[in-house]
Amino acid sequence: MRKILLTTWPFVLAAIVFVSVRFAVHNARFVDLYYSTGIYPFIARLFSSLSNLIPFSLWDLFWVLTIVLLIGFLVLAIFRKVKWRWYGLRVLQFAALIYVFFYVVWGYNYFRPKIETRENWKKQKPDEAVFRSTLDSIISHTNSSYVSISSSNYPDIDQLVEESYRKNRKELGINYPNGSRRPKTMIFSSFFAKSGVSGYFGPFFNEIHLNYFVLPMEYPFVLAHEKAHQFGITNEAEANLAAFVICMTSKDHRLQYSGYVNLLVYFLSDASQLKDIKDYIREINKPVILDLRFQRRHWQGLRNTTLDNVQTAANNAYLKTNNIEEGVKNYNQVVSLVIS
Predict the structure, then answer these.
(1) What is the pTM of this model?
(2) Domain ranges of the chain
(3) Fewer CB near the last or first residue (10 Å), C or N of the chain?
(4) pLDDT of amino acid 126
(5) Cβ neighbour number for residue 17 with a 10 Å cutoff
(6) How far is it, in rounded angstroms, from Cα 118 to Cα 97?
(7) How many CB atoms lie within 10 A of CB 45?
(8) Coil vs helix vs strand at 186
(9) Strands (E), the chain
C-alpha cells in the first residue's frame, strides 16, 4: 500500500486539480472571489519576494535543468543504467506535478470573469464609424506624444509603470501591490526573438521577463503588459488593455507614446481591410512612421519562420486549453476592449 501511495500521489493531485479546473470553467465568480482576489495575492507576495532576491531568471533556469535531467536520464535508460519503466513513470509524475503547480500558483486566474463583467462594462457592438473615430483619435495622440526613448531610461520607466498601476488599481480591478515586480531579461532572448516573443510571465516563481531585443519604444508597453499578468490578468487582450491604460494615463510622454504607438499597430492591423487605409497612414507623422518601419524591420530581421510558426501554434493551443477560445487572435481583441 505504501509503495502504491508513493507511486500514485502525483496523479491523485493532478486528478483533483483537473476536476477543480472543470468546476472553475463554469464558476467564474467563485474563482474571482476565492482565488484571484483571495488566495493568489498571498501566493504572489510570497513567490515574488523570494524570486526578486535573485537577479537572473529562475523560470529559465528551471526549464534548462529540467531538460538536462530528462535527457540525462534518457541516456541512462538507453544504456540500461536505469529501467525504462522507472524513467517513464518519473516523467509522468513530474508532468503531473507541473500541471498541479501551474494552476495552484497562477493558472486558475484563467477562469475568472472577463474584465467587462468584473468592471460592469457594456461591451460595444462592432461599429465601423466608432472604429474609424477611435483610430483617428489614436493617430492624433500618437503624433502629439511622440518622444525618443532610450534604454538608459528603463529604471525610471519601471518606477513610472508601478506608479501608474497604483493609481489605476481600482479602474483595472487589481490587487495592488500584489507583491513586487523585478523585470528580468530572458536568458535565451535571441532564441525567443526568432519566434517573435517580446516578453513573458513565469508563473512558477512569479517573475516578469522581457526580451533583450525589445525596442525602447516598446519597452514601457511590454513591461506593463507582463506586469498585468503578475496581477492575475491572464487574458492577453486584457493585458494589452491594461498596458495601454497604464501608459496612456501617465503624465510621462515616454509611457504615453509607447502606449499609443503600440496600440496603433493593433488598430492598423484591423484597419488593413479598409479601402481608404492609405488615408489613415498619411495622417501619421513621419517620425512615428519611421519608428513603425524600424520596428517592423527589427523583428523581421530576427525572425525565424519555422520557430515563429511553432511558437505561434504552441501558444495558440496553450491559450485555447486555458479558456481563451480565440487563441493567439486574443491579443488583437484589445481593439474592441479599447473601444468599449
Answers:
(1) 0.95
(2) 2-111, 116-339
(3) N
(4) 77
(5) 20
(6) 31
(7) 16
(8) coil
(9) 183-185, 199-202, 207-210
Cα atoms in the 13 Å half-sphere on the side-chain side of 141: 22
- Cβ contacts of 231 within 8 Å, gap of 6 or more: 44, 165, 172, 174, 175, 176, 178, 242
Angle at the Cα of 173 (from 32 to 336), degrees rounded to 5? Answer: 100
Contact criterion met (CB below 8 Å) for 144 and 226: no
Cis peptide before 177 (omega within 30 of 0): yes
Please give the single-letter amino acid code of residue 32. Answer: D
- Asked if 210 contacts 186 with a C-beta cutoff of 8 angstroms, the reply is yes
Is-contact 297 194, C-beta < 8 A?
Answer: no
| Per-residue model confidence as pLDDT tens digits over 175-221 | 999 999 999 999 999 999 999 999 999 999 999 999 999 999 999 99
Report the C-alpha gap between 57 and 230 in whole angstroms: 15
Please name the amino acid found at residue 126.
P
Question: Cell for 53?
Answer: 532576491
